[in-house]
Amino acid sequence: MIGVLIATHGNLGSELIKAAEMIHGSMKLVAHVAVDQDKGVEDIKKEISAGIKKLDQGKGVLILTDLFGGTPSNLSLSFLKAGKVEVVTGVNLPMLLKLNEVQEGKSLEEFAHSLKEYGIKNISLASEILGKKFSG
Amino acid sequence: MDIALVRVDNRLVHGQILEAWIPFIKADCIVVVDDLTASDMFRETVIRMAVPREVTVIISDVEEFAKTTPFQAGNGHRTIVLFGAIASARRAFELGFRFGKLNIGNIYNDSCVICCTPSVLLSESDIQDAMFLRDSGVRIELRRVPREKPLDFFEIVRSVTI
Asked: Minimal Cα–Cα distance from A72 to chain B, Å?
């Protein structure tokens, strides 16, 4: 199984996991790193590194971050390694809910790619979908 | 180049810069002055990818920046100059890059002797560099994002050390 580490500003990651578990039940091989304003860059890097080690069962680790260009993402990118660590930015709840389903039979790279597509697909403007039918 | 903000932030380009300072200032140029980043293709690439396309990105080491940047004459750009450490800002100042005001965002130093705010932890040499800049006439404020009230650096240092 591929490990998933969620690195975000503040407690967004742990809250996303809580929300996903509320819907889905407990999640395996998922952890989070919180980037707070009072943590130093080196300390955060150590936490990410420890998280990767803990989650890697040989199939690699996917890091999900909130914002491309933000500190959690910047620091995660320094761990990029083909076949070992991939990074997808813009994490959302639909992505977390589909971790198991999406990764089945996939390599780390394929998993990262599919999860990115799934995350994008699940952003909708409700009136675009419902508008014609319901808004007359 | 019209310098709108001179800032020290050891996270360099990150969320506060991209989502708060660039839109607030309406900056169309950002100069990252950091020796490590200037010699690291990967970090440079990440920064270039993160900054919105319409904002010009210049990445330079301290010496190159102070020597070559035409920082006096305006060519319409509203520019953010971003240093990774107070020492770099001081070095650029000594090499001829003059500024009247320095903004401090995030500085985290393991060998911290003064904890100004949760995001500004200064070492002995940080304080010396800041004192040098103050004695040269630079006003130093602590302010992570534009919506935050700026704090006067030396008032905080005074209140912490007394």
From this structure: 9
